[in-house]
Amino acid sequence: MKIKLLTPARWSQHLFVLLTAILLFLPATSFAEPKALVMKPFKQLSQESKECAACHKEKNPSIYAQWGRSKHYGANVGCYECHQASPDDPDAIKHEGFNIAVIVSPKDCSACHSQEVAEFSASHHAKAGQILGSLDNFLAEVVEGALTFHGKSSAAVNGCWQCHGSEVKVLENGDLDPTTWPNTGIGRINPDGSVGACTACHQRHEFSMVQARRPEACGKCHLGPDHPQKEVYEESKHGINFFAHVDKMNMDSAKWVVGEDYDAAPTCATCHMSATRELPVTHDVGNRISWTLRPAISEKIDAKDKASGKETKSWQDRRTDMKNVCQSCHTKSMIDNFYQQFDSLVELYNDKFARPGKAMMEVLQKEKLLTDTEFDEEIEWTWFYLWHHEGRRARHGAAMQAPDYVQWHGMYEVAERFYIEMVPQFMEILEKAEHDGKTDSATRARAVLDEILNRPEHAWFTGNEPENVKKARKEAQDAFKDRYLNDSK
């Protein structure tokens, strides 16, 4: 008997048919009542997509090659299936006799990937475009930039919006506004009313699982002085082990379950999105996060929703799910101790520096000792650096086990910024106020600072430490010097 071997492409098609058949008979489970799964394997590529492919093979060979390596190709999903548009779509254009849209939005992707889009739409990623109007955007539009690029700031167009997303505009002639496109920002606001860009993580046109699972996929946005998650990950034991043993990570596994398909290290996707033996894949990246480390003062991730009466998954349940990921490799006691360490760092930052710093800024504003314009006074820059840069680095370092980011890139710089810059600048503002006759305002503001600096954690700065504390530290310093000198002989 002669056995006919299947080519890799045919294997892909057979596997797709099998998985689709299974999915069609599984009960629907999702966070937000997704549409029923409508995708079915196509027996052959549509005539429309054949025409597209024949032309783009010559004009855009790299796009054609990337699509040819994709699972879409194996399922006979081509250009037209993704780019087709109704004539009345806001961004529809006539192209070679077809109505198409350049932008493939989450709404388009949801025709086949409904659960993924529903989960993404509930995530913080989907809200990233709401940066418009924030302090960050004010910096890029006004302080750093000027409204010289068709009424927009090039700093915002090329910077903030490329991660957070732009509101894509269609010009009167049907072209996409160059101030808003091209753009793959994660919270992009699309002409069809949908929010997000799947291509922020799943680079077109191959949509490789391997690419999306690697930490570099997140590094386009999650790096740099204010949110260095990629650099933090690379410093951590997780990152070190990933790069040392990437060949053992089984990155192209269809299910990619930690503890089954790989165990060398987690990636960003492992912890925040991917499946465990008990948890399904999720496209809500905050679904396992218990603290929000973004604002000036950290709070539990569900705090705002609870305050507004909105039903949401509790921070305790989110932490339980993250611990489930951790337990694929670590013992319960180790995980519990890690979270105690992490929580203690966030609370230290909050209580010693963030809440005091915010109180200082609020009293200056309340007493009208600052102008109404943001960033026109030195203390406003100092405060922004403290929480937006150094404070975030310290918190992210603790969350992802990168000690250098906790210490030298984090709390050390937070402390230096607070004691050596913010407090003296605050005092200088009060002295000027007194000189200008605003003595009552200065007195009320000074009372806020005095109350802060009289707390035990600031006693070293004011010289009010108890003698027994100073004595114990002096003994420890002397012992260290003795060891150092003896070791150097």
From TrEMBL:
Domain Cytochrome c-552/4: 109-168
Domain of life: Bacteria
InterPro entries registered for this protein in UniProt: Cyt_c-552/4 (IPR023155), Multihaem_cyt_sf (IPR036280), Multiheme_Cytochr_ET (IPR051829)
Keyword Signal: yes
Alphabetical keyword list: Signal
One Pfam family, short name: Cytochrome_C554
Record keyword Signal present: yes
Signal peptide coordinates: none
Coiled-coil blocks: none
Protein name: Hydroxylamine oxidoreductase
Species: Photobacterium ganghwense
